[in-house]
Design a protein that fits this description.
By secondary structure, the chain is of the alpha/beta class. The protein has five helices and five strands, in the order E-H-E-H-E-H-E-H-E-H. Strands 1, 2, 3, 4 and 5 form a five-stranded parallel beta sheet that branches.
Length: 155
């Protein structure tokens, strides 16, 4: 599409949306509860750990009288596709790829398995997933397209 036109929607009532990405220490819990529209975490949070990991955040929201449903939850997730690479697999935050796999910090497998895992995150309360795709090539994008394919149950 060469003649696309970008038309910003204009100012949002209340200002731009605020996303805070952090670990959940006391100061960040309070700041997130008071000011954020969304909160982001990363990597080593498995679907079955989402609810317990969010409990301190939900408690901080409740402490100031804010409905936890008003805070978006996002997750940065590494997806390692079984495709040829042009360079060695990347590592996140200085950890080896083997350690990331052992921690469950990387989704791997066929398209159906990765799709099921993404759905598990959604069912656990994650609203959006930011994908760190490996390999980050055209073939990697095409491979991830299979994960998002209607054949995998997306509508």
């Amino acid at each position: 599409m060469r003649e696309a036109e970008l038309r910003p929607r204009g100012p949002r009532p209340g200002g731009p949306p605020i996303l805070i990405g952090s670990q959940l220490g006391p100061r960040m819990l309070d700041l997130t509860a008071r000011y954020a529209d969304s909160w982001n975490t990363f990597f080593d949070l498995k679907p079955e750990d989402v609810v317990s990991a969010m409990a301190p955040l939900d408690a901080a929201l409740a402490a100031i009288g804010r409905d936890p449903a008003t805070l978006g939850r996002t997750l940065l997730l590494s997806i390692d596709l079984d495709l040829p690479r042009q360079h060695p697999p990347s590592t996140a935050y200085g950890r080896s790829r083997e350690q990331e796999h052992a921690d469950g910090a990387v989704l791997t497998g066929d398209a159906a398995h990765i799709t099921a895992q993404l759905r598990a995150y959604a069912q656990a309360g994650i609203d959006h997933i930011v994908v760190f795709l490996d390999p980050d090539t055209v073939a990697g994008l095409a491979g991830f397209g299979e994960v998002l394919s209607p054949r995998q149950g997306h509508h």
